[in-house]
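pasting for the record
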Amino acid sequence: MKLRIPKGSSHSKTHILLLSVALFFSFILITSETKPESTDSLPKNTGGNRAVNEPQRATPEKKGGINNKGVKYSHNSMSKRDPFKPFISKAAVGKGKTRGERLVPLQRYNFSQLKLIGIIWRNDKNMAMVEDPEGRGYVVKKGTLIGENNGRVTNILKDRVIIEEVYRNNSGKIKTRTASLKLHNAEGGETQ
């Protein structure tokens, strides 16, 4: 069932007029939200080869400012990691040794797998006895390479051996880490 209004009646002219006014105001409201608030801040065209209506390119703000909503913000990317660098650097892949070099037996194990079983005190040179997981014993002294990441024995004390390990962190910086192997007593526990 269709409602037909005769073409010449005043009702059809009123409906068309109201519809066109409503469309006009909705168009004005929609376009007013997307236009800039003021054209005074836009640079004037100096007469170059550019078209008059070409939009201006926005320049990025430096280090901080106020966004359109009036909220202050700043961004500092200096302490952030580069997202395009790989997690594992090519320098860290070889575990510190080049392909041609042979590893000493103590470098095949992580120093946490090794067990300190004795310390020998001399007048000027202290030495220690370290046992690998397979039960083999090795005598170490200051400067001996130990561990998978080129660790070195830096000091031998009365109850422990201090090991310094040089490694690369995720950002590629060289860091040092110290660890110690404590002397175990006869029952298999660590000494006090």
